[in-house]
TrEMBL record:
GO terms for biological process: phosphocreatine biosynthetic process. It is an enzyme of class 2 (transferase). Its EC number is 2.7.14.1. Transmembrane segments: none annotated. HAMAP family: Prot_Arg_kinase. A motif (RDXXRA motif of the pArg binding pocket involved in allosteric regulation) lies at residues 339-344. This is Protein-arginine kinase. It comes from Sinobaca qinghaiensis. The lineage of its organism: Bacteria, Bacillati, Bacillota, Bacilli, Bacillales. It comes from the Bacteria. ATP binds at residues 28-32, 93, 127, 178-182, 209-214. The gene is mcsB. Keywords: Allosteric enzyme, ATP-binding, Kinase, Nucleotide-binding, Transferase. Belongs to the ATP:guanido phosphotransferase family. It catalyses: L-arginyl-[protein] + ATP = N(omega)-phospho-L-arginyl-[protein] + ADP + H(+).
């Protein structure tokens, strides 16, 4: 494997799998563990030499004997990548923006399916991330625990009997786990019902963020729902609570879709097919508008109003139309207006592929 493999396709192999429930609403499930190693200063206070020593140790331990359930892991050092290559890995959710900004000693280990990402020297020594299509919180936790146990057999974690896993940020102390799902909620946004749920979700110890996590926008009616509490609850309890909240949101989204179809069918059809027409014919389109129109088309597919386009077009084009991928395919840096032109051309071509 090489870097080219990880940036040549917008859709990671795991995103193409048919497994996973509720895929019309839940695009993906992610389990992430924050871990630090004993005998090394945490990244926020470590020297460059210490960080490089840790990276060398971790990469050697984890690449030489990758277990079969994870697949072989390939190391990518951040300083070996261009700014745009790192941007593309962020756009695919394979690394975090924080890791992309590291100038030295940052790295990521990726498996062939791109479903496993082990970030080195991010905010913590290790960020162990596992990705799954659709709604699979229990399966995700089982796999992530197996991977975590394997990593722990190679290194010694910083762990306290009372506090649990020790992390750079106090909000991660305890299990060190973030369980999250990416949800497409156009009908709840359309009916303004989502705003009513947000306070209740927050009170239960969960948070709703945009597509790239903390500080990001909810483009294309895509929302990331994850736990905020890591201390005082077991991993199983966190996943169980997340599952309960998400199932309720799924039901509310289904109900909102049925309601708008019943009360405003012609308006919804008009909105969906206008967006389909704009995406199929526009010559210039900005990111926000493209995301909004793609969300409409995805809704049309899920409501069986559009039948000749695959349902994962939203996943694919939300990545392909980002600045990193647009500049990669253009093979040159692009100004914002140039990206708008390229984005429109790319979407036009993609929309024509399946109907023809």
């Amino acid at each position: 494997m090489s870097l080219e493999r990880f940036i040549s396709n917008a859709l990671s192999p795991w995103m193409k799998e048919e497994s996973g429930a509720e895929k019309d609403i839940v695009l993906s499930t992610r389990i992430r563990f924050a871990r630090n190693l004993n005998d090394y200063p945490f990244p926020i206070i470590s020297s460059e030499h210490s960080a490089e020593t840790l990276r060398s140790f971790v990469s050697k331990e984890l690449t030489e004997s990758s277990e079969s359930f994870a697949g072989s892991l390939e190391l990518l050092n951040m300083e070996d990548l261009s700014k745009n290559e790192k941007t593309m890995l962020v756009e695919k959710h394979l690394i975090s923006p924080h890791l992309a900004e590291r100038s030295t000693a940052g790295a990521v280990l990726l498996n062939e399916k791109e479903s496993v990402s082990l970030m080195v020297n991010e905010e913590d020594h290790l960020r162990i991330q596992c990705l799954f299509p659709g709604f699979q919180p229990e399966e995700g936790l089982r796999f992530a625990n197996e991977l975590d146990d394997w990593v722990e057999s190679k290194v010694t974690y910083a762990f306290d009997e009372k506090r649990g896993f020790l992390t750079s940020c106090p909000t991660n102390v305890g299990t060190g786990m973030r369980a999250s799902v990416m949800m497409h909620l156009p009908a709840l946004v359309m009916t303004k019902a989502l705003n009513r749920f947000l306070p209740a979700i927050n009170q239960l110890g969960f948070v709703v963020r945009g597509i790239y996590g903390e500080g990001s926008e909810a483009l294309g009616n895509l929302f990331q729902i994850s736990n905020q509490t890591t201390l005082g609850k077991s991993e199983e309890d966190i996943v169980e609570d997340l599952q309960g909240i998400v199932l309720q949101i799924i039901e509310q989204e289904h109900e909102a879709r049925r309601s708008v179809l019943k009360t405003s069918r012609i308006q919804i059809e008009d909105r969906i097919f206008r967006s389909y027409g704009i995406l199929s014919n526009s010559r210039i389109i900005e990111t926000k508008e493209a995301a909004k129109r793609l969300s409409d088309v995805k809704l049309g597919i899920d409501l069986d109003l559009i039948n000749d386009i695959k349902g994962n077009i939203l996943n694919e084009l939300m990545i392909l139309m980002q600045p990193g991928f647009l500049q990669q395919y253009a093979d040159q840096p692009l100004e914002a207006k140039e990206r708008d032109v390229r984005r429109a051309a790319l979407i036009r071509e993609r929309m024509k592929i399946e109907p023809r």
